[in-house]
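hiii, so i know i said id send this last week but things got crazy w the move. better late than never?? heres the sequnce for the chain we talked about at the cafe, plus the structure i predicted for it. fair warning i was half asleep when i ran it
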Amino acid sequence: MQDCLPAPRSPVPLDPSPWLEIWLEAGREGQAFTYANPDGLIVAVGDLVQVQLQGRHHAGLVLACQETLPPGLEGKRIRAVEAVLQSAAVEKQWQELVLMVAEACHTSRFRTLKSTLPPGWLGQRTRSGAGRLLCRIQRPEGATDALSLPTDLSSRQRALLEHLDSHGGCRLLRDLLGVDGYGRGLITALEAQGLLQREMVRVAPESRPRDRIHTGTFRDAVLEEPQTATPAQAAAVEAIDSAEAGSSLLLWGVTGAGKTEVYLQSAARQLAQGRSVLLLAPEIGLIPQLLDRCRARLGPRVLEYHSGMGEAERVAVWRRCLAAAVACEPLVAIGTRSAVFLPLGSLGLIVLDEEHDSSYKQESPMPCYHAREVAQLRATLDGARLLLGSATPSLETWLRCRQPQAAGGIQLLRLPERIGQRPLPPGWSSCRPGASRRWCWCRGGAIAPSSAAAAAAKLSSAPTATWP
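okay and structure toks below
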């Protein structure tokens, strides 16, 4: 197999090439095949095309346009390309990012390419009207009476049952786990009590509601005005806006200090300059609230991209980004780990909220990349600024803050106080004579004296650290 990405896209040819080398998902790593272009389709390197392989429709990536038939194929029947699915699907700068990720993760370039593109774009094509089998969670018949519920249900379990009742008694499992934010264990426990049951149903692609950005819901809405920034927030926004292209910054602020407002005001400045913004969250459950705040503030240019969406929806978002890049239209994309590869043009700012979260690390399948490191590569390639936000930064990020002028260094921005001078959650501190102060916060209230004493003993025996 030819383990390389397509060569940089050349200008659209005036005369169509008669032969095309196309990579298809055949075997473990894929394989390149030669196809004919008898209809004279305008095809260039990096385009996605539809072909047939063993009697089935496949989407393949054009690797090369050839004027002569490769040796060894004379006299053989060569299948023809059927249609162009997407022009300029893979651009030069995006290719460089894929190559760097593949090298860093020690995996093949084609496998990396397959994982970064939206699912269903490369590979075997399914009938659009057939739909997919999905799991639906529903209330059993006659089980919607609230008076018949067991008395020992937790508040979270009751909330889930009420949520299902408000949706007609049923909901797709992927929606409950994704945008609704309920846990799998919670659903399983209610199933064991006979209060829920699951059923496999076939869902057509068009049956899922489309993203509100396409319906115009936000187009005529009056946008919210920016909130009055605190001195620390205003200083952070100015520092982000004046940072050098390709630089990294850490927004370190306690819970409730207003990090999201800094994200929004910084994103608004980038949009005003004609540059796109990419905002990542570690989990799907955090997307809806962040999405609503961004759309209320920034309007209809906000997209979402995550695994809770269907294949057709993710492909539509990908196409939207490609079209916007050609038209020089700035966008705001909000998503989880996989959204770091979206083909946004003129990218000016990348934000990783809760950058310490382990969900940013892809564990399986390969490539096992970390979204924070990919975002750093992308910021360097695109000349964007990388903003990491956290109340408890990762040790890797914290260490790089101690040497901001060194290669890979990070500039530290602080939000030391909560909005409105609100107090922090109740907690306690343990201080050893001559050592740095250490804080242990308990969000639920005061810690029992025995637990506090045990924790204090562990803290007193730990080595001290000097923080920036």
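btw Residues 311-326 form the longest helix (16 residues). thought thatd interest u
miss u guys!!
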